[in-house]
Amino acid sequence: MDRNDVFVYALCMANELGPRDLYYDPGVRLLFMMRRLLRKWNFDNLNAPFWRLYWNNAPGAVIRHGARSVELTPDRIFMLSPNTTISMRLVHSPVTHFYAHFLVNSPYNRLKGKIYSFKAEKNMLETIKGLKTSEEDHLTGRIELVLVVRGLIHRLLSKVPPEHLRPLLVSPQLAKCMAFIESEARHAVSYSDLARIMGLSIRAMARRFENELGMSPLAYQRQKRIENACALLYDREKSIKQIAEETGFYDRYHFTKVFTAITGQSPARFRDVKNAFLS
């Protein structure tokens, strides 16, 4: 993304959020991170609407996306964009595995089917290498580590090729609507409200969504609700019924139907796979 693109997008976000927000903020929201010892890592066709960051201390793990097979090596840090379906295999064990799951703002949250490999520079990994491997430590109380990982994510996001991001930039009017939908994700949003925000007719507003985002306003709201639901599914104390209610769905059945359509798996399976991976 060249300087003009960044400035235009920053202005979009400033118009959307107010005059104090002059510079673009990716809004990194960490969902989960851990460093653990892998003795098995065999999962098929996993898909999620959030980003994933992986770093292993030794060769031995492989991820597959379509016909592409990628070995996780200690000299590289890997980031997988949302909605990237992968299978995982551990061909040599054990391997120490650090991973983080996170959400980010547009345009990064609209990248799909991407696996990025970045050189693991020494200063990127000093803190992570110092972590003990643990089956229980979710690293939630480590303020310094949280800041280091957020900084690492920011740095790696800045290395995403500009040509991947440029087609995803949206107009200031649509950016305002997207922010409104995200802030009201659990509540019904009327097309008339969105049309008023954009200063367009309802038909023109809906057409703008389809042309720039490739989806309807309703589909975008559902996507944001599912992103929030994925974050809540990390909380083992919450029932799926509770999560359905907190994310604005009528009931568990409706929630499960939409979740499955977007992620390719039910909320229960998503939680089971995640818990199996963490256990």
Question: How would you characterize this protein structure?
Answer:
- This protein is of the alpha+beta class.
- 43% of the residues lie in helices and 19% in strands.
- It has eleven helices and nine strands.
- A five-stranded antiparallel beta sheet has the order 1-8-3-6-9, covered by helices on one side. Strands 2-7-4-5 form a four-stranded antiparallel beta sheet, with no helix packed on it.
- A hairpin with a 2-residue loop joins β4 and β5.
- α1 (3-17) packs across α5, α6 crosses α7 and α9 packs across α10 (252-263).
- The protein is globular and about 60 Å long.
- The N and C termini lie far apart (40 Å).
- The relative contact order is 0.13.
Essential attributes:
globular, 19% strand, 279 residues, single chain, alpha+beta, 11 helices
